[in-house]
Amino acid sequence: MAALVDRLTDDNGDVRRAAAEALQGTTDSDAVAALVDRLTDEDSSIVSTAHNALRRSLAVDAARTGALRCLVAGLCSELEAEAS
After folding, report:
1. Which of 28, 39, 49, 58 sits CB 3.0–4.6 Å from 20 for a disulfide?
2. Is residue 45 within 8 Å of residue 74, measured between CB atoms?
């Protein structure tokens, strides 16, 4: 992960873009912070790629949160049923 994050600041735009694409869907805080930094890249295609990567990361995080809520709600319901 750290190697990809480092590539986001490479001098070569193609390398930065490829790193941003590879980090799509990550929820690693260092990677997300580095992708946010790329939103001001001089190359508009990298800005777009970083934006898309962050959107996908947000969707993954939201899906995990939703799944966790369902799991907790289900466990709470089971415990309440057992207590009755």
Report:
1. 49
2. no
CA distance 68 to 51: 26
Domains of the chain, with CATH numbers?
2-83 (1.25.10.10)
State the pLDDT at residue 61.
81
Q: Which two tokens stand for residue 21?
A: 């694409």
Residue with tokens 């490829």, as numbered in its chain: 18
Quote the percentage of the chain above a pLDDT of 70.
94
* Axis crossing angle, helix 44-83 with helix 29-37, rounded to the nearest 10: 150
Percent of the chain with pLDDT over 90: 63
